[in-house]
Design brief:
Layout lengths: L1 H31 L2 H11 L3 H42 L12 H48 L3 E6 L4 E4 L1 H10 L24 H16 L7 E6 L5 E10 L10 E10 L1 H34 L7 H35 L4 E4 H16 L2 E7 L4 E4 L1 H19 L3 E9 L2 E9 L5 H9 L1 E4 L2 E6 H7 L3 E7 L4 E9 L3 H14 L30 E8 L10 E10 L2 E11 L11 H4 L3 H4 L5 H11 L4 E4 L2 H9 L2 H4 L7 E3 H8 L8 H7 L10 H21 L5 H9 L9
Parallel strand pairs: 7-9, 15-18, 18-19
Antiparallel strand pairs: 1-2, 1-5, 3-4, 4-5, 6-8, 9-10, 10-14, 11-12, 13-14, 15-16, 16-17
Helix pairs in contact: 1-3, 3-4, 6-13, 7-8, 9-10, 19-21, 19-22, 20-21
Length: 722
């Protein structure tokens, strides 16, 4: 349109110039004529004035034809060449121009084709190199996947922010088994790409191990590693070995850490089985000793006068020798079993708080008494055999309860002069030193179970000391254990790290090595860099405030701009009310399907963990969030996550569209809809929609979550309330 207008303007300009020239010429000639000449000319030309206008029109037509040819040759041809060139630039496959026009235009087209051919040749070379490199990388990935799948050990790889970027199937099962919560949604809330490892491990514990690795790297260690033992929420013991992941660097330069590898081993069962074997052996030893005592009695019976003296002496010598040999073998066997039990566990670095929490649970379980923690130094790191030490504490607590009816006990942990003081404190009847010594020397028993280990054996295993004291002013008494601390340097690093930290399937995604959350406020972070939990609920009706309940929750996660389809959450919920028959054709969930399913009070904690540290995304989010908010008082959980609504943001991107229903938006974006009106199916579609909306929002200048929320609040649909 712009080109045609210019041509017409040019023709009009030429026509106007011709008219002006003709008019001026006639006026000039007319001014030179005498009156009688003017009359003659008027008489001759007056009737023929139309021929003069026609000649002007014909002349203008000729000029227009000429201008059109010139325009086509020198203006339109370059413009058309420009459009073809732009198509050529954007094309991914090789193309050639067919230029038309003047010699110069055709020559320019030939030059453009030559440049395009060179570009296509470079593209082909680059594509071939990328294909070769991709094949090599894919081969390495396949090998890694096969290796990870075959490993019998749980492996988790994290970046320095503690975000999980790789794990194997065994690790997922391990985390699920370590949870003390009901197994909901296949344990999906416990492990996932982009999740924080600090949801499972204490941040200070991991930081301490990382500091150890940093120090060893600084000293020139080639392959440094660190290990620690910790307790899970379910009270199990987990041995963790950490190895660094180093950033790529020039040869000879010191490598910076970009992450770390955790190899997990649940040692609880192994040591419980070992303890059981030792108990069986100990029981066998005790029974054998009883049998030997009976044999000794029989030998004594042989001394009756009925037997001949020579035979009696011979039998007595044989039996007594055999009894001695058997007694010695049994004694040696018992000593070996006790020695093996004392030396089985290696000494581990362990956060003192972890040890006391595990001891607290064990003591309360065995003694059925309240055990509290008092004056616990959170910076103390111990080097202990935590299993046997907890056994010793539980044994002493049980004796206090059984023999002195102690009702309350406390555990205290302090660092004094390079050693840890662990105190078991109680208030009640005093005991004698002889009683304490007998408790130290006797084999520890727990009801019908027993172990050949004594409290003194445990203390000796740690190279420590243990004694009994009274505090007469407070009417208290306590057992005090002196235990070894971690190395002095490690203690200093741990204390510094505590101060620093006070402030705050799709089995892999190595791009997360580049993610750093320090210094970024969530509202001001780019939409493409955030982690999302996209969720949907199916309900008994549309009135959350009127008693309708959730009957299914489904959710998917988006991390690093990728939809993790295998890391999903899907759980039916027993609503404790009748599902209206009119709603069943919509969601397909019947009363029988929800019968026996967990209630909302059990499901929401698992979903809260699944959505931890992410932005919630839903379609018509106000509806789903209302159901969650109405359960805050019942569950004690607050879903205070940032929330984005694809309904509102679709209205931002496409304000002139009549409908913003989820299926209409999916059709607009050419998204295949599977499982519509199931919670997980709708969550997956919503996630696909959200991934399409992000670049469209960015084109509108909406880059951060703050900008997206502000834009959403300006739409008409933001007025909807539930």
């Amino acid at each position: 349109m712009k080109t045609d207008r210019r041509l017409w303007l040019a023709i009009a300009g030429v026509g106007l110039a011709m008219a002006l020239w003709l008019g001026l010429t006639v006026a000039l000639l007319w001014s030179t004529l005498r009156p009688e000449e003017k009359a003659t000319v008027d008489a001759i030309l007056g009737p023929r004035i139309a021929l003069l206008g026609l000649s002007w029109v014909l002349a203008l037509g000729g000029v227009a034809v000429g201008l059109g040819k010139l325009y086509k040759r020198y203006a339109f041809a370059p413009a058309r060449l420009l459009e073809k060139t732009r198509v050529l630039v954007a094309a991914t496959d090789p193309q050639q121009l067919m230029p038309a026009g003047s010699t110069e235009i055709r020559g320019l087209g030939v030059a453009i084709n030559e440049l395009a051919a060179q570009r296509d040749h470079l593209r082909a070379d680059m594509a071939q190199q990328i294909e070769q490199a991709s094949a090599h990388v894919q081969q390495e990935k396949n090998r890694l996947a096969a290796l990870m799948a075959e490993l019998t050990q749980s492996v988790v790889v994290c970046n320095l922010d503690g975000r999980i970027l790789l794990y194997n199937s065994r690790a997922r099962l391990q985390f699920k088994a370590l949870s003390d919560a009901p197994a909901l949604a296949d344990g999906a809330e416990l492990m996932g790409i982009g999740r924080s490892i600090y949801a499972v491990f204490d941040r200070k514990l991991v930081a301490h191990a990382l500091e150890n690795i940093h120090q060893r790297l600084a000293r020139g260690a080639g392959s440094p590693s660190a290990q620690f033992v910790t307790t899970t929420q379910s009270g199990q013991l987990l041995r963790v070995q950490m190895a660094p992941v180093r950033a790529s660097n020039k040869e000879g330069a010191s490598a910076d850490l970009s992450g770390f590898v955790l190899m997990l081993d649940n040692v609880t069962r192994n040591f419980e089985e070992g303890n059981l074997r030792d108990q069986l052996l100990h029981g066998l030893t005790e029974r054998s000793r009883s049998s030997l005592a009976n044999m000794q009695a029989a030998v004594d019976m042989l001394s009756l006068p009925d037997l001949e003296p020579v035979m009696r002496d011979r039998f007595l010598t044989v039996v007594r020798d055999e009894v001695g040999f058997m007694s010695k073998r049994v004694t040696d066997l018992a000593q070996q079993a006790a020695h093996g039990l004392k030396t089985r566990w290696p000494m581990e670095e362990m956060l003192g708080t972890d040890l006391l929490l595990a001891a607290q649970r064990r003591m309360e379980l065995h003694c059925e008494r309240t055990v509290s923690l008092d004056s616990v130094d959170a910076s103390v790191w111990l080097r202990v055999d935590s299993f046997t030490l907890i056994q010793a504490l539980s044994y002493l607590a049980k004796r206090l309860v059984d023999e002195f009816a102690i009702k309350f006990m406390r555990l205290r942990l302090q660092s004094v002069q390079g050693r840890a003081q662990l105190d078991l404190i109680w208030t009640g009847q005093a005991m004698s030193t002889e009683t304490v010594m007998s408790w130290e020397m006797e084999s520890m028993r727990f009801g019908a179970e027993s172990t050949p280990l004594t409290v003194r054996d445990v203390v000796a295993r740690h190279g420590g000391e243990m004694w009994f004291e009274r505090e007469r002013t407070r009417h208290e008494a306590f057992f005090r254990f002196l235990l070894p601390l971690a190395d002095a340097q490690e203690q200093l690093e741990a204390a510094q790290q505590v101060r620093h930290n006070d402030s705050r399937p799709e089995f892999y995604d190595f791009d997360l090595f580049q993610v750093s959350e320090a210094g970024h406020a969530l509202d001001d972070r780019p939409l493409s860099s955030l982690s999302y939990t996209v969720f949907d609920t199916e309900t008994t009706g549309l009135n959350p405030s009127g008693g309708d309940e959730i009957i299914q929750i489904g959710a998917a996660r988006i991390v690093n701009g990728k939809l993790l389809r295998r890391e999903s959450f899907e759980q039916l919920v027993d609503p404790q009310r009748v599902i209206p028959a009119v709603t069943i054709p919509i969601h397909g969930i019947t009363q029988e399907m929800v019968k026996g399913q967990p209630r909302i009070g059990e499901v929401l904690p698992a979903f809260h963990v699944f959505a931890h540290d992410t932005v919630l995304v839903a379609h018509n989010a106000a509806f789903d969030m209302k159901f969650l908010q109405l359960k805050e008082a019942e569950t004690g959980l607050v879903f205070d996550h940032p929330v984005l609504d694809t309904l509102l943001l679709s209205a931002v991107v496409h304000p002139n569209q009549e409908s913003h229903r989820l299926d209409v938006i999916a059709e607009r974006f050419n998204i295949t809809v599977l499982g519509r009106h199931t919670a997980l199916g709708d969550a997956m579609v919503t996630a696909e929609v959200w991934l399409r909306l992000i670049p469209l929002l960015q084109e509108m200048g909406i880059h951060t979550m703050r900008e997206a929320r502000e834009a959403a609040q300006k739409t008409y649909y933001a007025r909807l309330k539930y």
